[in-house]
Write a structure and sequence with these properties.
By secondary structure, the protein is an alpha+beta fold. The chain is built from 3 helices and 7 strands; from the N terminus they run E-E-H-E-E-E-E-E-H-H. The protein has one domain. Strands 2-3-4-5 form a 4-stranded antiparallel β-sheet, with helices on one face. A hairpin with a 2-residue loop joins strand 6 and strand 7. It is elongated.
């Protein structure tokens, strides 16, 4: 996702932990918005500390973002604030992981490791994606009973709310009703 500004070569992690702070410029914010499939990214800041542990890298930190999304009910734009904590174990190759630790490895090498470097912005963007509400709703969207329809307004005898009413007749070989 990034050309290299927030990519840290694995070779640079052999000594003391490396702390990386990301505050993307407007061009990068637009790329993040496209990546997350949101209307806009108003604010995006994160920090990650990378610490080598044997063949692995332990990444800890946090990310905070303000996204503009669409309400799933009204389609009106709404702001969503994301604040996530990061705690990942990255392994450059699965072959380097011992047999018992493969299930403990978070996300293995892809997509955080690119050309021998850790893409810190990619870690932050993916952690933001994990924190996003899958069904964002505007505060004034009202209670729709979860289906976008007022449950009290449904007439159970109405044929428009009984799409499978004629299925039994069809299965019994009777012609469809108009």
């Amino acid at each position: 996702m990034t050309a290299g500004r927030w990519r840290i070569p694995l070779a640079d992690l052999s000594g003391a932990p490396r702390r990386v702070t990301c505050a993307p410029d407007p061009e990068a914010l637009a790329a993040i918005a496209r990546r997350l499939q949101v209307e806009d990214v108003l604010d995006f800041k994160g920090q990650v500390e990378l610490r080598a542990k044997g063949n692995d890298v332990h990444a800890t930190g946090d990310v905070a973002a303000t996204l503009v999304r669409r309400c799933v009910v009204t389609l009106d734009p709404l702001e969503e604030r994301i604040e996530e904590t990061i705690d990942l174990r990255l392994t450059p190759t699965l072959a380097d992981a011992d047999e018992g630790s493969a299930e403990d490895v978070d996300l293995l090498d892809a997509p955080f490791l690119v050309d021998g470097a850790i893409d810190v912005l990619e870690i932050l963007v993916q952690q933001t994606a994990l924190g996003m509400d899958p069904f964002p709703r505007a505060p004034d969207a009202g209670d729709t009973g979860g289906a976008g329809v007022d449950p009290d307004a449904i007439d159970p005898q109405s044929p428009t709310h009984r799409p499978f009413a004629g299925l039994k007749d069809l299965m019994d070989g009777k012609p469809p009703k108009d």
